[in-house]
Structure formats: C-alpha cells, structure tokens
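chain below, 176 aa
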Amino acid sequence: MHTQTSSVQLWELVHDKNMHLLLREPAMIELARRNEREMLEFCEKLVVSGDFDEWLASIRALAALRTKEAVDRLVMLYAQCYSEDRIIIIDVVGRLLTAEHIHPFSIMMRQLAKPGELDVTGWTSVAIGTLKNVCKRLGVEVIDDAGTGQEASKLEALANQELVPESEHEESLLQP
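prediction:
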C-alpha cells in the first residue's frame, strides 16, 4: 500500500495522532518491512500505552520487522502479558521462529500445551516441530488436520494423562 511512499512521509503519518490507528498501521508495517530501526522504539511506546489496539498494532509491526531484537521483544512481551493475550504472541512468534529462539518458544508451548485445537497456519516448521516435541514430552498426543500426516494447518492435542504442572521458574527463563 505504501511501497512508493518515502520513509519520511510514512513517519509523519505514523506520528499523526489525529489519524485513526487503523489508517496509521499500514505505514507502521511498511516502515517495519523496511527495517527502520526506530520502529522498535516506537513499538515499545505503543506496548506500554495501555490501549489494546495500540498493543496489537505494535505486535504486528514487531512481527513485520523480523529481526532478532523484535523476536526477543515478543518473547519478553509474552512473559509480561495476561494469559488471554499470550495466544496472539505465540501465533506471531510461531510464524517467525528460527532455531535461535527454540528454547523460549518451547517454554511458551509448555505453558500452552493442553487438550484442544490450535491453528498453526503459517507457522514455521521449526515452530511446529517444537510444539510437537513439547506435547510429546508432556504426554499429549498430537494429530494434524485429519490425521493425514501432511503438513498441519491445525493441530489437535489429545490428553491421555493430566499435564505436568508448569514450573514457576519457567517465567524467568523466557528472558532472551
């Protein structure tokens, strides 16, 4: 949408508080795609604003940055947010996950792994593999879409036993 717009113009749009966030967000995403380093700092301000829509826009912009620092920040946000918001961050990190962040992602998955269905559309193979390994260690059977054995877009976890309680120490391990 803003691919032909200069970064200066995009920053003006992003900072224009008279403009609704829905109209500013595409400019934020474009600046993130351009790897504008100032986006990390800008997203930080939105995260602490107390407004859910700004928080969500910052999560999307951090995902568009696709840098190690952005993923580190997403992992830290996971540890700081309420449980109902954690699934949003897990989905975003699952789409970006590389081997570098397997350990914190596996901790995130241990806290999430429970019977039910999880949409993993767009997740990296590293993220899906990590989820499957965590479920296996916890004794949770995982099946893909229809038991086809093909790449899953949804995984269903079936519990044969009660899950191992999550460690209180794991929250502190999420720090990159």
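The longest strand covers residues 154-159. Residues 97-176 form one domain.
thats it, cya
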